[in-house]
Amino acid sequence: GENVEQHPSTLSVQEGDSAVIKCTYSDSASNYFPWYKQELGKGPQLIIDIRSNVGEKKDQRIAVTLNKTAKHFSLHITETQPEDSAVYFCAARTNYGGSQGNLIFGKGTKLSVKP
Amino acid sequence: KAGVTQTPRYLIKTRGQQVTLSCSPISGHRSVSWYQQTPGQGLQFLFEYFSETQRNKGNFPGRFSGRQFSNSRSEMNVSTLELGDSALYLCASSFTGGSYGYTFGSGTRLTVV
User: Concatenated DSSP letters for A55-100?
Assistant: First the structure.
């Protein structure tokens, strides 16, 4: 089955710096890669996602890149702000001949943005 | 529009008891997935329901079960609770099962004593 590895587990940056979180997946049949942000006491919130037919996607200060050959994808946050502090999860979902699998999550990255 | 609603938010149960958690998906969403979140194991998939049918199941013992009603609301049940079942249980809904993204609820924090 699919396995998703996420690094680093903790990340501390200064306000205004960039943050990069990396994930690798094992199943070449995976075709959907979302990123979630979870704040204390809340459920994960989808912040950006990318499908396997796209190499990069950007939404304001957030971007995701996907390298299908290497089976890894990354989240890039530019101009970080204190409110970006949270736990970020990557995930992957496989699609076997039209039958969609479930989301497999990485272990999470705790991002701290220092003012 | 209203998000995914999970009830109750907090629950304390004793070992050996059973518990039922409820999830109301976003209106129009037909897929409901359940996840267990713990500090050690992270987010682990329990099961997914689509149009009242269990479509996928994770690697959890048979004590964990679920169902979905015709209005897409879902419940999960855990019988014979163990201390290790203490976790945040999250429900996520989707229009078809993930193609358009999953929306999570705030979860039910279950503590087993």
Answer: SEEEETTEEEEEETTTTEEEEEE-S--GGG-EEEEEEEEEEETTEE
Task: Kindly report the nearest CA distance between residue A77 and chain B, in angstroms.
Answer: 20
pLDDT, tens digit, 9 for 90 and up, residues B66-81:
999 999 999 999 999 9
d(CA A14, CA B52): 48
Instruction: Write out the two tokens for B100.
Output: 């358009």
Q: Which of A41, A103, A108 sits opposite B102 (nearest CB)?
A: A103
Q: What is the pLDDT of residue A97?
A: 54
Residue A83, φ and ψ in degrees, nearest 5: -75, -5
H or E stretch covering A7: strand A4-7
